[in-house]
Amino acid sequence: MGFASVSGDARGPNLRGAFLAESGVAEFSIAAGRIMESEVGTAMVDDLETSIKSSAALLEAVRALLRIAGPADAAAVARELVHALGGSTVEASESTPSAIPLDISFGDGAVVLPTAPLGTVSRSELERHLPSFVNDANRALALVDQRRRLSEDAVIDPLTGVANRRLLGRTLGRLDGGDIVIMIDLDHFKAINDTLGHSEGDRVLRALGRTLATSLRAIDTVGRYGGEEFVVVLRGGDAEAYLTRFRADWSAQRPHPITFSGGVAPAAPNPARALEAADRAMYRAKEAGRDQWQFATESDYL
Asked: Is residue 20 part of a domain?
């Protein structure tokens, strides 16, 4: 049985279609080449290059937001992005009609606005990319603030606002020979809770924490050790003078006429035992009649 022959008429349409397709591609290529050589083509290439550069600058700026620690860092990244997009910045108090009403200071100092001449490519790129970047920056700053608050919550006593026992332990673990540890305990605090209620007791503790915090230097530390016990670490100085001043402050600010007893222990003899020595001295002050402080003796460190 022989193969059927394919006639010229059967092949004709396929060959003609292929020829036309090839001719169309060739014509399109020639036309595209002519367009690219024209002013329109040059503008298209320029626009494409600008778009690529702007997208790269925006991507780099967004990546930089991962490393910011606060508003000042975000503002610095924003200024770099504005310059990369061909614009400049100006304070709002000195702005001109060409300024874009979008604050990129993020609350760090004076209001700063991006600016570029109207009708320019730079202006278009700023208006296109900056709003989304500012939104990203604000979200990044919110995350930074959240991490900061979580970190503070981990080391701050929520009732009194001073260091909690965890942070206090770190400070006590790094005592120097010139440091002084003071244990402070409210006298008859239980009577406040029993007669006036725990809400009043909490008010007393908040007032004590606030008074202690405002009575110290920036280099000193105060923390809540537990219950109505607080620990102060003085980085040198005169413990007697400090406690005398603090007693006057407390008498003026306490919500109820409640006194305190204290124990003072220089870290020098044995920093590892200074807290225990201060605690023993504080209990001697309690036994001696309260509303006073005692200094640790050599035996308190043993």
From this structure: no
Sign (positive/negative) of CA torsion 54, 58, 60, 64?
positive
Q: Residue 220's domain is classified under what CATH number?
A: 3.30.70.270
Structure tokens at 206: 């908040």
Q: How far apart are CA 125 and CA 132, in angstroms?
A: 12
Residues that are catalytic: 228
Token pair recorded at residue 143: 């995350």
Give strand ranges (E) for 109-208: 112-115, 180-186
Residue 293 falls inside a structural domain: yes
Beta 260-266 vs 229-234: how paired, if at all?
Answer: unpaired
**Long-range contacts of the stretch 196-200 (C-beta < 8 A, 24+):** 196/256, 200/255, 200/256
Residue 186: beta bridge partners? 260
What is the residue-level pLDDT of the chain in tens, covering all 302 positions? 443 444 444 445 554 554 444 555 555 455 545 545 555 555 566 677 888 999 999 999 999 999 999 999 999 999 999 999 999 999 999 988 999 999 999 999 999 999 999 999 999 999 999 999 999 999 999 999 888 877 766 899 999 999 999 999 999 999 999 999 999 999 999 999 999 999 999 999 999 999 999 999 999 999 999 999 999 999 999 999 999 999 999 999 999 999 999 999 999 999 999 999 999 999 999 999 999 999 999 999 99
Q: CB–CB of 296/264 below 8 Å?
A: yes
> pTM, whole model, 2 decimals?
0.58
**Range of 64's domain?**
39-153
Residue 64 lies in a domain: yes
Interhelix angle for 198-215 vs 189-196, to 10°? 140
Compute the distance between CA of residue 232 and CA of residue 96 in angstroms, rounded to an integer: 55
Strand partners, 99: 115
